[in-house]
Amino acid sequence: MECAWKGRATRCVGPARRRCGSCGAVAYCSASHQISHWSEHKEECKRLEEQMKHIDVLNEFPFTFSVEATVQVCEKQVTRCSFLSKRNIHQLGMWLYECHCGTSLASFDSSRLIDSWDLPDILCPCKEPESPISKHLSSWKEYYEWRCIPLNSPVALLLHWPLTIYHAVRTGLGSRIFEIYEKLHIHYLGPEKELLQLAVFAELHVLFPGLDVHIELVGPAVPQSRDGECITLCKYARCLSMDCVCKSSECVSWDVHTSKTSIITLNLRKGFYHDRYRDMAKDSFPHLIIAPNAGIAAYPSWLPTILIKEMNIPAIFSDYCEEACNLGASCITSVTGCPLARPIQLNPFRQPVAVEGSALFLPCYSNCFLYGM
User: Measured between alpha carbons, how far is 202 from 266 in angstroms, rounded to an integer?
Assistant: First the structure.
């Protein structure tokens, strides 16, 4: 933890060991820094106090590694590096940027699609499910049971991207999507590390059986060399088992009810959404906008993007903690003059390993909470 007043008028005198007595969510290096911060902190203190009461809910996952990945990571008994190393996936393929080992995203050659789980077939969804999806999935436990994956498998660390899309579509467009749409167009804002994990989006085949899904991924992190690139995901990410069906099968999802295969296409666009959306909308007008881990209150570049509310398209944002969502929601309502269309809610498909180095004592997770306009 860093002092909540760090970087202001005076230097910190030491580690942040003095926690706020009311909320317990922030800490300070000294009484003077705590006093100086109060004029700002008093507005959020009560809100953070309420959020601290729900830590157990945030840390609740069904996995065998849940305590290790949540409490022990937050208490610095375990690191994300050691978690991945224990499972022999540290700095491999799609797992490369799931820890802080000093490698920057920009330094990686992202010209090819990484399409291997680096796990045995028993631990990953590399082939068609044994039965089609029969109900709306509402938890990791339901998903793992349906896909016949044991609860010691770490694949949820990467699958939180497509499962969050699945949940956002259900939240933003309702449950009748298969009756209304033949092709679902999604504009996906601000992709970063998922640019090296695009193969996991093939899971949308079975999450939306018989429905074509086209996703425009737009953001400044997209390499210039890949601007305009289109990727068709006709196979699932593959496992390590040499005799697995994923090595020979086309692995496309077939909806027995409609006798139709689903097609998942991804289009990469470099730049900010407010600069690119008019050109994108000509070819792919969105049914839904999704912005994962948006950080709306932290980045001024969101202001002109929020003003695109004129498109009248549902937009779902996620963030690492509830407080970030509160700040983002405040920005949206002040800019648009309208209340949230979808209130802040916990994402059941948040990534199940805590983010290291949080500025709060609240546990933070990738895609932890959702809200929308």
Answer: 10
Dihedral sign, CA of 176, 180, 181, 182?
positive
Strand partners, 218: 189, 269
3-state helix, strand and coil shares in percent for the chain, rounded to the nearest 5: 35, 15, 50
Count of CB atoms within 10 A of residue 303's CB? 12
Q: What is the mean pLDDT of each run of 10 residues along the chain (373 residues)?
A: 86 91 93 94 93 94 97 92 96 90 60 88 94 90 97 98 97 87 94 94 94 96 93 93 83 53 92 93 92 94 84 93 94 91 96 89 95 94
The closest alpha carbon to 150, from 119, 118, 117, 122, belongs to 122
Strands 264-270 and 260-261 turn out to be unpaired
Q: What gap in Å lies between CA 87 and CA 75, rounded to an integer?
A: 20
**HEC sequence for 164-187:** HHHHHHHHHHCCCHHHHCCEEEEE
What separation in angstroms does the CA of 359 have from each of 4, 8, 11, 34, 197?
Answer: 8, 15, 17, 15, 27
**Cα 348 vs. chain centroid, distance in angstroms?**
11
Q: Which long-range contacts (CB under 8 A, 24 or more apart) does 37-45 make?
A: 37/4, 37/5, 37/8, 41/4, 44/323, 44/326, 45/20
- CA nearest neighbour of 372 among 330, 317, 294: 317
| 332 within 8 A of 373, measured Cβ to Cβ | yes
| SS3 letters across 130-158 | CCCCCCCCCCHHHHHHHCCCCCCCCCHHH
In 3D, which of 328, 290, 259 has the Cα closest to residue 163? 290
Residue 52 to residue 321: CA distance in whole angstroms: 11
Helices and strands (H and E) in the chain: how many? 12, 12
- Can you tell me the distance from the alpha carbon of 310 to that of 320, in angstroms, rounded to the nearest whole number? 27
Is there a contact between 329 and 371 (Cβ–Cβ < 8 Å)?
A: yes
